[in-house]
Amino acid sequence: MTDTLSEQLSEAQIEGHVEDNVEENAVPQALRPRPAINLDNAFFFESLTARGELSIQQCSDCEELRHPPVPMCPDCNSTHWAPKAMKPSGIVHSYVVLYHPIVPPFEPGYVVAVIELEQGPRVVMNLEGVEREDVKIGMPVEITIERMDADLVLPVARPAAGKSNGEQA
Question: Which of 61, 83, 108, 169 could form a disulfide with 89 if both were Cys (CB 3.0 to 4.6 A apart)?
C-alpha cells in the first residue's frame, strides 16, 4: 500500500490505468487549479488515481446515483452509499467556452462541458479533441482518465469515434 498520491499515480501509470497527459521534456507550465477534496468526494479522486475509473456515489438503500457527492441521499435520506464505476461514455448535456479570466495553464477558448453519463449522472469535465465551433448538445463522447501532472488525475471527454450527434455512445 502506498502513502502518497504521487506514489499512487506512479503505480496506476505502471498498471496502465491512467493515460499520461504530461509531455516529456516539456517546458514547465503552471499547474491546473486543484480540486477541493474532502471526506464526501475523496473516493471519486481515489478511483480515478488508483483504478483509472470514473466512480459515482450510489445510495445503498434506494440505489439512486448522485453527483456531486453528498453525505445523504436526497431521495431517501439514507447515509449509506458505495461508489459505482461508470461506463466511460455519455453525451454533452451543456457546455461553455471560456475566454476570460485566463487561468494558467489554460488557453482562452477551452471547453468545459457537463457530460451526461450513459447511466444518467452528470459530471463536469474538460472537452478536448474538438474545435469549439463543432461542439453540439447531444454529441456522444468517450471519457478517458488522464494524469494532468504528478499530483492530479482527472476525467477528460472527447468526441466518440464514429458516432453522430444524438446517437447514444
Answer: 169
